[in-house]
Amino acid sequence: MSLVKYQIADVGGFKVYYREAGKRGNPKLLLLHGFPTASHMFRDLIPLLAEEFHIIAPDLPGFGRSDMPSRETFKYTFDNLADVIDRFTGVVGFDKFVLYIFDYGAPTGLRIAVKHPERISAIISQNGNAYEEGLSDGWNPIRAYWEDASEANRRRLRDFLAPQTTVWQYTHGVPDTSLVSPDGYSLDNFYMTRSGADEVLLDLFGDYKTNVALYPTFQKYFRAHKPRLLATWGRNDPFFLPPGAEAFKRDIPSAVVRFYDTGHFALETHATEIAAAIRDFLN
Length: 283
What we know:
Blueprint: E1 4-11, E2 14-21, E3 28-32, H1 45-49, E4 54-58, H2 78-91, E5 97-101, H3 105-115, E6 120-125, H4 140-147, H5 151-156, H6 163-171, H7 182-192, H8 197-207, H9 209-225, E7 229-234, H10 242-246, H11 248-251, E8 256-260, H12 267-282
Parallel strand pairs: 3-4, 3-5, 5-6, 6-7, 7-8
Antiparallel strand pairs: 1-2, 2-4
Helix pairs in contact: 2-3, 3-9, 6-7
């Protein structure tokens, strides 16, 4: 039985909540979550890998139990999220690590990889996109906001924050939805009811266009440094399509791509299979 510790790191006055498991001295594994969740999305995966790895899974700024400062004092952009997490890795002593990226964790983690390629020993992308062909039509309302940041277009994005939409994100594309625990989406919905959280999330929807603009930079990093890369993908993801996973092979021919018959939150149904794939890949 592996123990998980629940801790807070002070990153220059910014409190970052994180989960930690495994023995220090083992290979380091950094887990970065996505929207609208937090490090609890890794609750099943962490015990499966804690014997082999020293694991740390932070809540991104504004998510979960990490600080969510006012929008007047902290600008919610992916550049700033990446900056805080980059400094966080220094605080917790993660000098070189395997990077696990999911959803919002992808543009956050890949910014760190581009800045510090020597610190990345491998990348595991679980529905973490870096190619335009991976973006589905589900992004169209958000794209409209990128092109015209009107109040009307911002208001339309609130549907993405509705409790039923969170449940849909967890269950869409899952053949047997009884396998999806309500714990994850219930906690996500709780965090989204915090005062000001809705505006923070809408700001990040708007800033996501900077991630798409950086795709060529991420791809150049892949070609230049050829990091070992494993893509583990929920095949039925309504937002990030399978071609986005296959595209990694274009820049990293040795990349390993595995698909699972599930949706966006693949760990909810396939944590055991993904953990086995990670062990096989890294060993």
